[in-house]
């Protein structure tokens, strides 16, 4: 093969890589699938059988919204990735505790966006993660409600397809919320004042949630860390906000660990692994419980619709 032929092949290979879909995935494909799978495997027996049989599909669907981050689509008339990116995060540290209490009580994401603008922020900068999770949870509950009253087996099978699809997409955003990086402006290296000398490199996000998790975390690790019994949330919105606040509280511990020993595929310290497993299992338990809540609260009750 001549030098010019080798150069042509190399150039073609580089061009193919540059044209490949850009994947900056929360938890990476591996972590997202782990959360979806272990959540489904831990479901109570009183969930519908078709749902419990769908563990592998729910696992596959968990990374789905990240698959929408296609470079091909970003070149089209409408930027799908840019339009949906705020659904994946909430920069909670831009708000005081009082602001969180007031603004996160907004009746919907549009009212929340209005309050964010009034506070001097662009809504896309703040993110919509708690509203995204709540919206999909309500869609799923409505799906279950329709399934309960389906007129025949054919319609019921159609609704089952809708249920699995919505449950899988919901799972992605719950999984995002279990990673502290998705609750903060410090999502990819510390920004602004940094008196504690935290890492500032813009590879931290992928080093932690993709490379390290892919190299070290297995299904059995996550499943073994899921120690809480399934529960039905009396108030979905409050549970979702508390979940994200708990995740955000783990931000500095995450940065401290990376400061001591960076998260890398070759990193083998038990503290790093324990932290990643704890956050993945927290996401799996939260997802299982939201699915379970959507099912249990979809049944007709004398007291009317459950609170959100």
Task: Please provide a written account of the structure.
The structure is a single chain. The chain has one domain (22-69, 79-91, 127-296): Orthogonal Bundle (P1 Nuclease). The protein is built from 17 helices and no strands. 38% of the residues are buried. The protein has helices at residues 3-19, 28-41, 49-52, 55-61, 64-67, 71-74, 80-84, 97-103, 109-118, 123-126, 129-148, 153-178, 204-216, 219-224, 236-248, 251-260, 270-296. The N and C termini lie far apart (67 Å). The chain is globular, with a radius of gyration of 21 Å. Helix 2 packs across helix 17 and helix 4 (55-61) crosses helix 12 (153-178). It is mostly helical and 308 residues long.
What's the SSE blueprint?
Layout: H1 3-19, H2 28-41, H3 49-52, H4 55-61, H5 64-67, H6 71-74, H7 80-84, H8 97-103, H9 109-118, H10 123-126, H11 129-148, H12 153-178, H13 204-216, H14 219-224, H15 236-248, H16 251-260, H17 270-296
CATH topology: P1 Nuclease
**Number of contiguous helices:** 17
Major sheet characteristics: none
Order of helices and strands: HHHHHHHHHHHHHHHHH
The proportion of residues forming helix, as a percent range, comes to 55-70%
Shape: globular
For the record, give the distance between the C-alpha atoms at the N and C termini, rounded to a whole number. 67 Å
Name the structural class. mainly alpha
Mean pLDDT: 90
Portion in strands: under 5%
CA radius of gyration is 21 Å
- Total strand segments: 0
Task: Report the CATH architecture.
Answer: Orthogonal Bundle
